[in-house]
Amino acid sequence: MKKQLAGIITAAALLSLYGCQSTSVKDNVATIPDMNNQDLYEVSHEGRYYVFDDFKVYQEFLTVGETSYRKVLIGGGPNGQTLVYGLRGVDKKKLSGVAAEEMFKGSLQAADPFYGEIRADDGRLYVFDSLDDMKAMRMVGEAPYRYTDIGTGPDKQTVVYVLNKQNKKYKPEALMMKFKQHYNL
């Protein structure tokens, strides 16, 4: 009887310690240190859709056309494309909690400030300061509000700064500066 009572007390103590810590998966993901959620880069390339949370890995992909480490989901991308998450070396063994995947799925909010790019099949480079604007463009395929800068990107690409209802009347000076800093332009 004493052993049974001790077991009940121990179980009650554990429940009081852990039972009150009910958090969602989203809350847990958002608190993982070094989430690297301040930027996101997406590329539609040769029938696949690539997503990166690291500028260096993204640039290596643009140079080589592949990533050293990746997580592949066949049919998981927009329009049923194969979805490829380009991973940093520190993320290669993670089964979950990779910022690129979590932000793409919508289970991780972007840091503030945020910077994003989509390299589209049309050769244009779309630049964002909002993950929500990036998601909307990914879904629709077009940016309703934008500031277009022809031939000012790397390799003379047209750069489209994506805006929204709140900032559509202003030239995106800060975003343009951030873009130029990324590419040393």
Automatic annotation (TrEMBL):
Q: What is this protein called?
A: Lipoprotein
Organism field: Neptunomonas japonica JAMM 1380
